[in-house]
């Protein structure tokens, strides 16, 4: 979603707004797939002018049916086991010295033990456009929360995401955890959790072959999705590794309505 359907200001352009309703009117399933938590999507869904649509959130750990101005209906989710979550949190906070966000389906907790980590949290909240529900001073406080729900995703904030992601992959090798490098953080989800796997599950429900899916992306969490669908399109502003696995690269960026422009071309060609 970010860097793809949203522009650099984190907004949906008028052209992209119209695209969603146009595709639905043509009987095409329009799906948002994002690394963001489900709660962040709701204001956008309310503004989109469509009654409902399927969404993939938490980088594929949750599949739900979102509705405008109404609570979403979870269809499936894959939470991290408690023991694995403790291992990830310990690695990030104790060995790597990073502040972490522990996100469940309904709420979020941030562990920040230093002023620097709290400062990074402020930047992260501004970029994600959602505040953490609880800010704690230590991992011990987090795991002392009564009936702490299982996490769908754990995020660690770092100025060097690629390097820290490599360290985390080495430390967690064979532990059943998928590590993703992002712009200012690294993300941890269950092994085999990704947008492609969630889309495949959704396609089974809808009776649509994965080969009939057109997907757009720009970031490392889009790799599996773009390489699995019928037509994977990397945005012009995508990372080079993403362009390398996509079937094609869009001629336009997210600030130039790249998604809408390419879909309009596919409609004209009779392919959507």
TrEMBL record:
Gene3D superfamilies: 3.30.1240.10, HAD superfamily/HAD-like. GO terms for cellular component: cytosol. Keywords: Hydrolase. GO terms for molecular function: magnesium ion binding; phosphatase activity. The keyword Hydrolase applies. Pfam families: Hydrolase_3. It comes from the Eukaryota. The keyword NAD does not apply. PANTHER family: HAD SUPERFAMILY HYDROLASE-LIKE, TYPE 3, PHOSPHOSERINE PHOSPHATASE. NCBIfam families: HAD-SF-IIB (TIGR01484). This is Cof-like hydrolase. It comes from Chrysochromulina tobinii.
């Amino acid at each position: 979603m970010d860097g793809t359907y949203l522009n650099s200001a984190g907004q949906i352009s008028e052209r992209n707004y119209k695209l969603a309703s146009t595709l639905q009117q043509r009987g095409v399933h329009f799906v948002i797939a994002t690394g963001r938590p489900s709660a962040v999507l709701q204001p956008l869904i309310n503004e989109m002018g469509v009654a409902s649509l399927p969404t993939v959130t938490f980088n594929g750990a949750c599949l739900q049916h979102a509705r405008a101005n109404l609570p979403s209906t979870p269809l499936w989710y894959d939470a991290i086991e408690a023991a694995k979550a403790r291992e990830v949190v310990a690695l990030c906070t104790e060995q790597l010295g990073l502040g972490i966000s522990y996100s469940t389906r309904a709420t979020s907790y941030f562990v920040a033990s230093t002023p620097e980590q709290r400062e990074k949290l402020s930047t992260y909240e501004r970029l994600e456009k959602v505040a953490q529900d609880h800010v704690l001073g230590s991992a011990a406080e987090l795991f002392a929360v009564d009936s702490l729900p299982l996490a769908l995703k754990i995020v660690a904030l770092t100025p060097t995401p690629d390097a820290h992601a490599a360290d985390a992959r080495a430390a967690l090798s064979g532990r059943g955890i998928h590590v993703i490098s992002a712009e200012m953080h690294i993300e941890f989800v269950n092994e085999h959790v990704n947008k492609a796997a969630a889309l495949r599950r959704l396609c089974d429900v809808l009776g649509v072959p994965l080969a009939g899916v057109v997907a757009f992306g720009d970031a490392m969490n889009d790799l599996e999705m773009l390489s699995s669908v019928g037509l994977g399109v990397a945005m012009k502003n995508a990372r080079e590794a993403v362009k390398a696995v996509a079937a094609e690269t869009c001629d336009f960026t997210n600030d130039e309505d790249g998604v809408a422009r390419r879909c309009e071309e596919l409609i004209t060609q009779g392919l959507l």
